[in-house]
Design a protein that fits this description.
This protein has 290 residues and is mainly beta. It has one domain (2-286): Distorted Sandwich (Beta-galactosidase, Chain A, domain 5). 12% of the residues lie in helices and 39% in strands. The chain is built from 4 helices and 18 strands. The chain has a 9-stranded antiparallel beta sheet, with helices on one face. It has a 5-stranded antiparallel beta sheet with strand order 7-6-12-17-16, with no helix packed on it. Strand 13 and strand 14 form a beta hairpin. It is globular. The two termini are 12 Å apart.
Length: 290
């Protein structure tokens, strides 16, 4: 019965405005927020303060995601109370009144972590940021029923050599899940790091191929605190280590040149997925695991 209910809800949301592409992209300079860009580069690798919402962003009707354009290269989440596209109007930051009236908000707190599914490297002993670089480039693409953002970090120091790392994040119309891919554009393998962060007081459910969190993130810029759910799904065959550093659960990949994973999020103001149990059930169903 439970699966039939979620199947009905899933088909209902997937058919919502199905004829339209319910995804969008956003990339602009804070100094010129009316001009949207397709691509931007920096030799310093840091345009965090120069770019609107601190980096490229993408959205579908359920959530928005951004990649920080600096050494963190973390993935952050913008949560929505009702389905729809909001970045073009609110640029990630609705006013407090607009948030209280039902628009989305930035409830997620990344801090020093990878956020939700962000990518770093592993040198055998510690996590390495994608920094310093000789150049960092971000671009956004909207096509068909998908939108994606990419960040290319060039000449990242890694084990006495330098590597180029490309990270791509893709959202799809009608699906709450988003795909994260990382590529080492080199002749040598690397060990990737990804993961999911958590905060004190949150519920954390750890399974072999997925991790779920639910609860409040420390208040930062949102008008109110709202319970937030996050999830990461990995292929366990791609990873040979997991660690919990007290702020995040990380997965360390086997040496290779490519990994992919899925992320998802929901919040307590949404119908149907507004508790940890409902979120887990829905996310697993959408991934084909339940």
């Amino acid at each position: 019965m439970k699966n039939k209910l979620f199947l009905f809800l899933f088909l209902l949301q997937a058919s919502f405005l199905a004829a339209q592409n319910m995804t969008d992209v956003s990339l602009f300079l804070r100094s010129d927020s009316a001009t949207y860009l397709n691509q931007v580069s920096s030799e310093s690798g840091d345009l965090y303060r120069a770019l609107g919402h601190h980096g490229p962003a993408i959205e579908n009707e359920w959530l928005a995601l951004r990649l920080y354009f600096d050494k963190k290269a973390a993935i952050d989440v913008y949560s929505k109370a009702t389905p729809g596209l909001e970045l073009g109007t609110y640029k990630w930051y609705p006013t407090p009144q607009q948030q209280l009236e039902g628009k989305g908000a930035d409830y997620y707190k990344v801090g020093p972590t990878v956020g939700l599914g962000g990518i770093r490297l592993w040198d055998g002993e510690k996590v390495l940021p994608l920094d310093p670089v000789s150049n960092r480039t971000a671009r956004v693409v909207k096509e068909g029923s998908v939108s994606y953002m990419e960040m290319l970090s060039e000449d990242v120091p890694y084990l006495n050599r330098k590597v180029d790392i490309l990270v791509r994040v893709t959202v799809y119309s009608g699906f709450r899940k988003a795909k994260v891919e990382a590529f080492a554009l080199s002749d040598d393998d690397v060990a990737f790091v990804t993961g999911i962060n958590y905060h004190q007081g949150q519920q954390v459910v750890v399974e072999e191929d997925c991790i779920f969190t639910w609860g409040l993130h420390p208040e930062d810029v949102a008008a109110e605190q709202v319970e937030l759910g996050s999830a990461i799904f990995v292929n366990p065959d791609d990873f040979d280590q997991t660690k919990d550093d007290g702020n995040q659960h990380i997965f360390i990949s086997k040496p290779g040149r490519q990994i992919s994973l899925w992320i998802s999020s929901a919040n307590g103001k949404e119908p149907f997925v507004n508790t940890l149990g409902r979120f887990i059930d829905f996310a697993k169903f959408e991934m084909g695991l339940d």
